[in-house]
Design a protein that fits this description.
Elements lengths: L1 H25 L4 E5 L3 E2 L16 E6 L2 E7 L2 E5 L5 E12 L7 E3 L6 E7 L4 E3 L7 E3 L11 E6 L8 E3 L8 E3 L17 E6 L5 E6 L12 E9 L3 E9 L2 E10 L6 E6 L1 H5 L6 E9 L7 E12 L2
Parallel strand pairs: 1-9, 2-10
Antiparallel strand pairs: 1-5, 3-4, 3-6, 6-7, 6-8, 11-21, 12-15, 13-14, 14-21, 15-20, 16-19, 16-21, 17-18, 17-20
Length: 307
């Protein structure tokens, strides 16, 4: 009886070993795809200012198969039946309204597409050539007719965003290399806008001189800007309804010790006022009760939408 049981146990152990061996032999080693970064390509002389950007995430497709969203930089394994050339497509993702947990594909950038040869056990880096600056504004994509309106880049004479009646301070220009926005490689930047909040200067608010007819019905409307500030900075819209003016903040950007790039989606505020005829864009801050001088530095403010 004991001998019979031992024989059955040994046969079972051998069968498990055989199955495990077969499974190990059938598992192919993956290739690896490395994506260090994505950024806008240089466009010297662009009317909207520097081609600054902040792509935090990439949505990845390989041969049409969606591999999900990946925080950059990333290296991901690629399982495949055969080695060889694969079509790779990357969609640029951003932190919407400056919130790291609120990420989405930016609808106004082109995607990046290339063909790369993937081999098992080998890491392939894309974009090819280790150059992350491959994105541009998508003027001809879904819907077409993209508008990129330069609200302010501080390089031309006069201001396109001016102090509101509520503000007790306004812009000054700074060309100090320690303060102004550091332009991307191959681009230049002479001035950035700066506002100072101190004793007697407690409120900063500017609004666009022009009013804009913006798309509603849940259409995306974005403001992009570069900023460095010691106090929170709010971004929003002023809606002009028949007989009424509504001022609505969309997002408040936290203080930062280095220059940052933000994407603010105004869709909720713009579509939430269907009878508004047009809109202004505003930025604003209040003096912090810290007994110190506070500064707000801003550059490359632009409005993007598809009419």
């Amino acid at each position: 009886m004991q001998e019979s049981f031992t024989r059955i146990w040994l046969w079972g152990l051998a069968l498990v070993g055989l199955i495990t061996s077969c499974d190990q032999e059938s598992v192919e080693e993956p290739a690896f795809l490395r994506i260090p970064a994505l950024a806008m390509a240089p466009e010297p002389g662009a009317v909207w200012g520097n081609t600054s950007s902040k792509v935090t995430t990439a949505w990845v497709e390989v041969d049409g198969v969606n591999l999900g969203a990946h925080h950059l930089p990333t290296t991901l394994p690629i399982l495949m039946d055969q080695e060889g050339p694969k079509e790779i497509r990357l969609y640029a993702g951003i932190n919407i309204n400056g919130i790291a947990s609120f990420r989405g594909i930016y609808p106004f950038y082109t995607d990046y597409s290339t063909t790369a040869t993937l081999k098992r056990g080998v890491t392939t880096t894309v974009p090819l050539g280790n150059n992350p600056r491959v994105l541009s504004y998508d003027f001809v994509g879904v819907g077409g007719n993209l508008v990129v309106e330069p609200l302010e880049n501080f390089e031309s004479v006069g201001r396109r965003m001016v102090a509101s009646v509520q503000s007790d301070t306004s812009w000054i220009l700074t060309s100090d290399p320690a303060l102004r926005f550091p332009a991307p490689a191959s681009e230049t930047n002479v001035y950035s806008g700066m506002a100072i909040l101190d004793t007697g200067l407690s409120r900063f608010e500017v609004q666009s001189m022009d009013r804009y007819v913006l798309p509603k019905f849940s259409a995306n409307v974005y403001v992009e800007l570069d900023y460095l500030c010691s106090v929170p900075l709010s971004v929003g819209v002023i809606a002009y309804r028949p007989g009424q003016i509504l001022q609505m903040p969309t997002a408040t950007l936290n203080p930062t010790k280095t220059w940052n790039h933000a994407y603010i989606n105004l869709v909720t505020e713009v579509s939430g006022v269907p009878d508004a005829t047009d809109f202004r864009i505003f930025l604003g801050s209040l003096k912090a009760g810290n007994g110190k001088l506070d500064t707000i530095l801003v550059d490359n403010i632009r409005l993007l939408y598809r009419p």
